[in-house]
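Hey,

Quick one before I head out. I ran the complex with NAP overnight. Inputs first:
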Amino acid sequence: MTAIPQTFRAYVARKSERDGTPVMDRGVRDFRAADLPAGEVEIRVGWSSVNYKDGLAARIDGRVARIDPIIPGIDLAGEVVASDDPALPVGTAVLAHGYDLGVARHGGYTEYQRVPAGWVVPLAPGLTPRDAMAIGTAGFTAAMSVVALEDRGLNPDDGPVLVTGASGGVGGTALAILADRGYEVWAVTGKPDEAGRLTGLGAAGILSREDVAVEGKPLESERWAGAVDAVGAATLPYVLRTLKTGAAVASSGNAGGPKLETTVFPFILRGVALLGMDSVTVPIARRRALWDRLATDLRPRELGRHVTEVDLDGLDVALDGIVAGTARGRWVVRVGGG
Ligand SMILES: NC(=O)c1ccc[n+]([C@@H]2O[C@H](COP(=O)([O-])OP(=O)(O)OC[C@H]3O[C@@H](n4cnc5c(N)ncnc54)[C@H](OP(=O)(O)O)[C@@H]3O)[C@@H](O)[C@H]2O)c1
């Protein structure tokens, strides 16, 4: 079974050396079908997206890529062009993300990809491949975070909820989902000029990054009924010491840095919980169910409106921008389109 042409275009990152210094040689190349990994489902990729991890996978010091060379791209959406799985026939609109994709196995920045059937999510009606990548791994993680908080009992009557890194992919999507579900959402951003857009997404109030990055007492006034944090660094300790008694924060990222310096007091004196979010390993049944909800009750407000579109040739700028922290909203990558 194969419907993939012998060669096609892909964005490839390969470790190299220039004047004795290690560098990443990156760009769009002709790629051979024979060099794709094995898998039961072949996909013509319509869209992919740019996530923080992709920026790292394409950097020589990123410590994310586990194969060399690598086609980065931790998510992709498109159409099945060949399949050994009767449940995923040719013509099915699908997406895949996480597991080893774009990290230990070639990812989404390619016109064609082959993946295991057990990684594939059929797209729910109402969600186009572009919509799916406007959500992407970041949006899926945001939805996971909201569901984790609600499964623990959070509801809009509990009080204001905080979202950090709000101009980014995880933060912006979490903000949109929570606002639509009736929460009073406060957004933390390091970009004051994003205030208008964040208010449009549903933010009831805005805090500056400096407001939350200062050192504080081990416990401060109880303010937040819940929080979604993809920043880590100095931000997560602030969240922990200002959560209400019994509240939780869903922690998914380290855009500000990986180190966590806190005390145990929020945990032992207020029963606060730190919920770890890992979108990579979510089992396929749960993954498909959550994507179905992303097409319906968790569909982010203004889906697809605040996205920046690039093609494979425009990836260098997008990948460098997301690591530099200058990303605003989501970046989608038009591969074959559709
Ligand atoms: N656990 C998982 O499964 C999972 C899944 C997806 C993403 N992640 C992680 O979540 C994080 C965010 O991913 P993303 O795709 O949303 O990235 P992103 O679009 O770049 O958003 C990150 C946001 O964090 C803020 N930020 C950036 N640098 C910062 C710094 N030095 N200090 C404080 N805030 C900073 C910025 O927002 P403001 O300027 O508005 O503050 C930025 O827009 C990354 O660490 C990523 O690896 C984890």
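The mean pLDDT is 96.

Talk tomorrow,
K.
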